[in-house]
Amino acid sequence: MALALAAGMAASTPADAQTAHTHSAEPPAASVLDDEAPFLAENNAAMDRMMSGMAVKPTRDVDADFTAMMIPHHQGAIDMALAELRYGKNEQLRRIAQETIVEQQQEIAAMRMALGQPLPPSVPVPTQVPPRSPTSQTPPSPMHMNEGQSQ
Q1: Is the pTM value of this prediction over 0.70?
Q2: Using N-to-C axis directions, what is the helix angle for 30-54 and 62-87, rounded to 10°?
Q3: How far apart, in Å, are the Cα atoms of 29 and each of 17, 42, 130?
Q4: Please, what is the Cα angle at 117 between 111 and 123, to 5 degrees?
Q5: CA pair distance 99, 90, nearest whole angstrom
C-alpha cells in the first residue's frame, strides 16, 4: 500500500502529471469515459456544492465558523461516497464509502449538537444505492432525503 501511495504522490506537480500521462500506453477508450461520465458528473456536482457551502462569511465566532465550513465539507464526503456506491464496483471501496457516510453523518450531528443547533431528520443509512436514472439531475443526499415528506 505504501508503494501505491508513494507512486500516486510521485506526480505532485503539473509537469510530473503531464509526464506520467504521456507514458501511458493509450488514452482510455471513449466507451470507458462514457461509462464513467455519470459518476464524474455526480462527483463534480458534489464537489461544487461542497466548495460553495464552505465559502462562509466570518461571524467572529470561531466555533460557528468552523462548523459552518466543516458541515458542507462532511456532506461533500457523504455525497461523493454515495456516488461510489452508485457506480463503484470494488467491494472494499464500497464498504469504505458506506463507513464514510455513517461517520460523516455522526460528525455532522456532533457538531450541530455542540453548538445547540437542530439535528437533521433521521434517515436510514444507504447501504445499496441504485444507479441514477438518466433523467434525474441531482441525487438526494442522506441529510436531505426526507425533507418535505410527511411522516
Answers
A1: no
A2: 160
A3: 20, 21, 25
A4: 75
A5: 14
Say how far apart CA 66 and CA 82 lie, in whole Å.
Answer: 24
* Gap between the Cα atoms of 86 and 12, Å rounded: 29
Query: Using one digit for the tens of pLDDT, what is the confidence trace for 7-30?
Result: 444 444 444 444 444 445 565 656
**Which three cell numbers mark 124?**
436510514
Count CB-CB contacts under 10 A for residue 69. 14
Residues 104, 71: Cα–Cα separation, whole Å: 9
Calpha distance 71→63 (Å, rounded) = 12
* Cα 148 to chain centroid, rounded: 23
In whole angstroms, give the CA distance from residue 133 to residue 129: 12
